[in-house]
Structures are given as C-alpha cells and as structure tokens.
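Hi F.,

I've been meaning to write this up properly since the lab meeting, where we talked about keeping a consistent format for the predictions we share between groups. The idea is simple: the sequence comes first, exactly as it goes in, then the structure tokens exactly as they come out, then a line or two of notes. No screenshots and no reformatting. I'm using this chain as the first example so we have something concrete to point to.
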Amino acid sequence: MRLLALSKWEDFKKVASCFELITCEVIRKPETGLVMLRGRMGGTGSAFNVGEATVTRCAIKTYTGIEGHAYVMGRSAEHAKFAAICDALLQDQSMVEKIERLVLQPLQGILSARRDLASRKAEATKVDFFTLMRGEND
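Output, unedited:
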C-alpha cells in the first residue's frame, strides 16, 4: 500500500488499465479531506503541528466479498479508487502474483528511477569543505 500511495497518479494510471474490467461495489466513494501533519524536533522532542495535507480515501468491495481500502495524498479520486481495488486484489491469493507483476514491479521501478535521479542531482551540488585551505598548516 505504501508503494501505491507514494506513486504519482500519472505513473499509476499507466499500469492501472488492468483494473478497468474489475467490477466492484463502492463502500465509501472517494472523499477528499485534510489531515494534520505532526512533527518532532530531532525525532524525540515534543510533538507540534507542521501543517495540513490533502488526502483522498476510498473503500470498495469486490464481487468475491473482499474489501479494499486506500488513502492517497492529493485530490485524485481515481488514484484512491484503483489503490483500493489493488488492496482488495492483493488479499486474494490467486491474484497476488499477477498484481505484483503487472502493477507493483513497474511502479517500484519508476519510483527507484525517480529516487536515483533526485539522488544524482543532489550529489552534483555537494560541496566538500575539507578541500579548502584553513591557513593553519604552513
């Protein structure tokens, strides 16, 4: 579910075409709301409110009676619905391998490539302060 929530809808849409044929009952239609983000100084200090984030949630039930739930950042109702369908299908042992092959592996590849690109961009701006002369050594 983390992988589905972290993926951008544009990426998820590319691999979600296999979900269009799945019939399901919508238990909770996609709803958008706000959640409060909390943080701690240094990870150990007192909690404080950082701000709010937009989240969309959805709940569905497949024709076999399996429920799927999803929360995703942003306002994409389609993203939340397809993530909920994926959650339900991953609970069906006969579908796990297919969902991993058609959806999860491609999304993991896209996220890894995006993370590597961001890492390379950050590495290009790295400054090594130990190469500067301090003037103490003659």
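Notes:
Strands lie at 24-40, 47-62, 67-73.
Residues 24 and 76 are 19 Å apart (CA to CA).

If this format works for you, I'll send the rest the same way.

G.
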